[in-house]
Amino acid sequence: MYEIFATAVVQNDDILKARAILAGVTKSQEYHRFMRIQHFEPQDPSTRGLPAIKEIQKERNTNPHVPAWVELNAILLKQQYTVRIHTKVNMDEVEGAKNDSANRPVIPPTRVRVLKWCEMPDPPSQHLAPWISQRRALDILDPRAENILLANRYQRTSNVYEESYDYRSGKLTYSLTKQWLIDPSVGTDEIPNLATADEFAPFWLLHVRAVVESKAEAMQQAIARLAAVREELMGVFEFKAFDRRALDTRCMLPA
């Protein structure tokens, strides 16, 4: 699959206005959510692939996610990447963490984890405007994703929480997002008090995104839809060109 998106910065003071505009433009119901995002990297950057892939393949008759793990292994054999695991956090859990610092809510081990891999965005070209990013992406909706990564000698490198307001319009998703960096002293599955956590940045990001098959026609249609959105929101949101190196997920071997 390919993820194709445009990004704009929204200042903290403008978030209520931005939410109202997006609800009106998309004519959709706002979806407010929180997500824990953990980043994982191989303990040894020289390792290639998933060392325990043969054990995963033994479950091909009982685990519907095996083909996706095999695809990820093929990717990692060529180049190691940082991968992410997204876990939904319920609103009542977020509020509970604010009210009781001694007994913070804990994310249950049975909650679904989604592993997300994405490639470095493609460079701009005559077919791709500099303010549009496109990259290959793979999602694995395996509840054991975290344990599988640990069994394949991956290590957790960061713990981030993300708040977002999402809207849908046709085949596009509009997402206003803000992230917090979590103190390492907070237990991995404990839900922190976001009111006292450090903001990753003093602003929100607006992503307008399409996820399509890796086919030229589908990708060009998505790019055309984003161009129409940019035109529609001209003067309201400024979709900017970002250095694609900021989205480079490759793990480099030490010099």
From TrEMBL:
Source domain of life: Eukaryota
Signal sequence, start to end: none
Tagged with keyword Cytoplasm: no
GO cellular component, one term: mediator complex
Any one GO BP annotation for this protein: regulation of transcription by RNA polymerase II
Keyword set, alphabetical order: Activator, Nucleus, Transcription, Transcription regulation
InterPro entries, sorted: Mediator_Med18 (IPR019095)
Single annotated GO MF: transcription coregulator activity
Compartments (UniProt record): Nucleus
Family annotation (Pfam families): Med18
Similarity remark: Belongs to the Mediator complex subunit 18 family.
Subunit structure: Component of the Mediator complex.
Free-text function comment from the UniProt entry: Component of the Mediator complex, a coactivator involved in the regulated transcription of nearly all RNA polymerase II-dependent genes. Mediator functions as a bridge to convey information from gene-specific regulatory proteins to the basal RNA polymerase II transcription machinery. Mediator is recruited to promoters by direct interactions with regulatory proteins and serves as a scaffold for the assembly of a functional preinitiation complex with RNA polymerase II and the general transcription factors.
Name by which UniProt lists this protein: Mediator of RNA polymerase II transcription subunit 18
Organism, scientific name: Cladorrhinum samala
Lineage of producing organism: Eukaryota, Fungi, Dikarya, Ascomycota, Pezizomycotina
Gene name as annotated: MED18
